Amino acid sequence: MSGPGGLSDEPGERGAEPLLRGRGLTRTFTLPRRSPFQPGPVRHALVDADLDVGAGESVALIGESGSGKSTLVRLLLALDSPSAGSVTFDGRPVAPGRAAGLRWFRRQTGVVLQDPYSSLDPRMLVGDTVAEPLRHLGVPGDHPAMVGDVLERVGLARGDAERWPHELSGGQRQRVALARAVVHGPRLLVGDEPMSALDVTVRAQILGLLQELRDDLGLSLLLVSHDIGLVQHLADRVAVLRDGSIVEQGATDDVLRRPRHPYTRSLVAAVPTID
Length: 275
Ligand SMILES: Nc1ncnc2c1ncn2[C@@H]1O[C@H](COP(=O)(O)OP(=O)(O)OP(=O)(O)O)[C@@H](O)[C@H]1O
Ligand SMILES: [Mg+2]
Prior knowledge:
Layout: E1 20-30, E2 42-53, E3 58-62, H1 69-76, E4 84-89, E5 92-93, H2 99-108, E6 109-112, H3 126-136, H4 143-153, H5 170-182, E7 188-192, H6 200-217, E8 220-224, H7 228-234, E9 237-242, E10 245-251, H8 252-257, H9 262-269
Parallel strand pairs: 3-8, 3-9, 6-7, 7-8
Antiparallel strand pairs: 1-2, 1-4, 4-5, 9-10
Bound molecules: adenosine-5'-triphosphate (ATP) and magnesium ion.
Adenosine-5'-triphosphate binds next to strand 2 and helix 1.
């Protein structure tokens, strides 16, 4: 733990217990064997990763394709089991397993994924898609009213509840996905490249919306993004992944302006301007 006034950005040294805490997270995959006489090769998708997200804090994960970002997100969300390591939320252990045992955790978290086309069920009306977490998680209250409120909050109309996903633009679909991710009042919103499938102007709108939701609802944010400009805009802290390891993490300005690791330098150098 940090001393008086400690401002360290290292995980575990921030004084109070973070909202979400991952320690020693490791995930290996055994690939299919190439010959019947040899075991399949082992792929280390993630090795010994420590990551915290504090209450109200925004944390970004960056790193090239295949570096382990989605693997880390899946472990932190208990969508996959670690080969080693642990996750706690608000000090309480989170272990993948029976859905009922994780309901408390699901109520505290919301997730938005990359592709707004595949993340919405084409056979479900928008209103039913958005209401689904309320039903699944047994959230009390007037669900249609809650759905109407959240649709307005993400810049859609209450009447859009009666529309089908195929009637919506990509940006509107991503708004629906966001509505669905926050309808049950989570404390942590997780996005795995939630904007990479959108064009530039829509991306700016969704970015603004994400900031608004975070600020109005007091959400913590964990965001995977290839977009360094977006990360700079949105994140308080950044963790840089390479080949399954976190090679550097710290305050966004420090990491992006004064990268310590050569790999981070090369990532940042690939961006035209950092302002
Ligand atoms: N189910 C799986 N079986 C085998 N290998 C896997 C599996 N899931 C992920 N991997 C491997 O783990 C490594 C990390 O993958 P991951 O999806 O976490 O990368 P990523 O950083 O999210 O990449 P991208 O930016 O392309 O989404 C990759 O080498 C990937 O091939
Ligand atoms: Mg990924």
